[in-house]
Amino acid sequence: MKVGLIYDPVYLRHDTGAHPENASRLRAVMGHLEKTGMLKRVEAIKPRPATVEEIALVHDPDYVRSVARKAENGGGWLDMDTYLSPASYEVALYAAGGVITGVEKVMEGVLSSAFALVRPPGHHAGVARASGFCIFNNVAVAARYALKKYQLKRIVVADFDVHHGNGTQDIFYQDPSILYFSTHQYPFYPGTGAVDEAGEGMGVGNIVNVPLPAMSGDDVFLRAYSEVFVPAASRFRPELVLVSAGYDAHWADSISMTQLTVGGYVQIVRLIKGVADEHCQGRMALALEGGYNTESLSACVKATLEVLMGDKEVADPMGKPSWTGKPAGADAVIQTARRIHGLE
Ligand SMILES: [Zn+2]
Predict the structure, then answer these.
(1) What are the structural domains of the chain?
(2) Residue 163 annotated to the active site
(3) Segment 15-44 mean pLDDT
(4) pLDDT tens by residue, 301-324
(5) Over 80: is that where the pLDDT of 256 sits?
(6) CA dihedral in degrees (245, 247, 250, 256; nearest 10)?
(7) What is the pLDDT of residues 229-246, one digit of tens each?
(8) How many angstroms is it from 273 CA to the middle of ligand 1?
(9) Contact 136, 159 (CB under 8 A)
(10) How many angstroms separate the CA atoms of 134 and 161, rounded?
(11) Alpha helices in 108-137 (DSSP H)
(12) Rounded to the nearest whole angstrom, what is the distance from the C-alpha of residue 213 to the centroid of ligand 1?
């Protein structure tokens, strides 16, 4: 079975001008995958748009209608940093639909795993609000879709974007069927994701935050994944693994102050894939979130696809950051996350 890459030039039509989240990101990634021969190794899959009913599995129908109307009327700002162009509503349906397409192909055994190279991103979007470049929460919509369509009981969502996925957390805060795990720089935008935000009601314990200090690098992130993510996700026994794949934690990405390398991302994706391999026949769908340095973004997406294909050697063309120490407080937060979630 092949690894799928879900992509369509429709994603370039979400026109944000000079905004950091703009169409040149996906153009750069596709150019890099083409130039390096990677496009020949993946199964190219076209996304379908999500239906309004599918979007409404997560989002308030009034909110969905208001986005559609605003786009029809020429677009504008949805919040301080989320722009809607006339085509953006339709493109956002394709972004959520791209992740759904990935889930369908993986669940139906057509692909071993899938990477949805989509925009706009999703993990900051809440039930009734756009936020942080995100219009609809693509991964949350795909998760709810998978629960319903395939009658699943347990899905793990791993989020390695440098920002906390506050939208995803809010949506699933009381949901026993989703384990949401996030590593993120903290304190940082959007301000949420403290270690003691752990879910409530039926979802208590199913939100797992590892808020990492600025300057955290490969060592710290890998401890968070091997000592918190792997035991928590394994205990949950997922039937499907979804990933909010944001590459803005790379050291070359100037939006953040974390120091991950391409090699660090490779090891993180290997650990997540290990959980999928052990518990759900490797069923895994990833969706692009952030990543604003087009060079590191392109290298990271290519490296992720190589890991999904099982490549043993994955090159890191970007190398290491100039500072590779360990920030104060990093070990303590990992320890606290382990304690709060009963992993000691
Ligand atoms: Zn981000």
Answers:
(1) 2-340 (3.40.800.20)
(2) no
(3) 97
(4) 999 999 999 999 999 999 999 998
(5) yes
(6) -110
(7) 999 999 999 999 999 999
(8) 21
(9) no
(10) 13
(11) none
(12) 15
Distance CA 229, CA 236 (A): 10
CB-CB contact of 40 with 84 (8 Å): no
**In angstroms, what is the span from residue 108 Cα to ligand 1's centroid?**
30
Contacts of 290 (CB under 8 A, 6+ apart): 21, 121, 133, 161, 162, 163, 246, 247, 248, 255
How far is it, in rounded angstroms, from Cα 137 to Cα 131? 10
Q: Where are the alpha helices (DSSP H) in the chain?
A: 24-35, 38-41, 52-55, 61-72, 88-107, 138-149, 166-172, 218-224, 230-236, 262-280, 294-308, 330-340
State the average pLDDT over residues 25-52.
98
Looking at 124, 163, 184, 341, which residue is catalytic?
124
Determine the Cα–Cα distance for residues 32 and 310; give it in Å rounded to an integer. 20
**Angstrom distance (rounded) from CA 187 to CA 163:** 10
* Residue 328 backbone zone (phi > 0: left; psi -120 to 50: alpha; other: beta): beta
pLDDT at residue 1 above 90? no
187 preceded by a cis bond (ω within 30 of 0): yes
Ligand 1: centre distance to CA 110 (Å): 30
Residues whose CB falls within 8 Å of the CB of residue 318, separated by 6 or more in sequence, listed in order: 250, 251, 252, 261, 262, 295, 296, 299
